[in-house]
Amino acid sequence: MNPIDEISSPLGDKDIRRSLIRKLSTQAPKAIIEELRVHNGNAIADVVTVHSEPHCYEIKGEGDNIQRILTQGKFYDLVFGKVTLVTTENHLAKALALAPEHWGIIVAKRAGQEVKLSHSRSAKKNPGFNKQLALLTLWRSELAEVAISVTDEKISKLTRACLSQIIAENLGQEKLMKNIGEKLIARSAKLENQDTYKSYAH
Hints:
This is Sce7726 family protein. By secondary structure, the chain is an alpha/beta fold. The protein has helices at residues 3-8, 13-25, 69-79, 92-98, 131-135, 140-147, 160-170, 173-201; strands spanning 31-38, 43-50, 54-60, 82-88, 104-111, 114-121.
């Protein structure tokens, strides 16, 4: 697609995502993760940054159905401490009406060949956070690593559900979210190293 066609086409996920990740990278997060499955796969977070804790960014381009945040948002609110909707000007009025008050909202619009992002409102602490469901963002091996420090039970015989329950019962929200963040950072670094190895191997 040439630059003129790109400017005249609807502003979609690909262009918004590229600009968002570039912007988020300047804030020096410990990890930026795309397409993160949460709540046992019931939802997929478009972009997640990890500083001290995970922050979810949901993208809705000009041609997307903004109403979907009503369904997706229920899952995000259970597993993320903060959530921000990144959308376009044509959706802003509806986004302000539909998105929970604690969600942040960023507006994306074209500025020549670039996509400019501006805050409509900042994200606040999520009151609906559920510790056990948030833990199910982690793989079983990651949960086992966290559980070792909080239980004497034999970890190898416990399911993900049991591990998440034990951890949730023994850790406060702040420490639990920090643990989730640390595991996601480690996972992101491991996957990056694997990709680097594959590129060298080829």
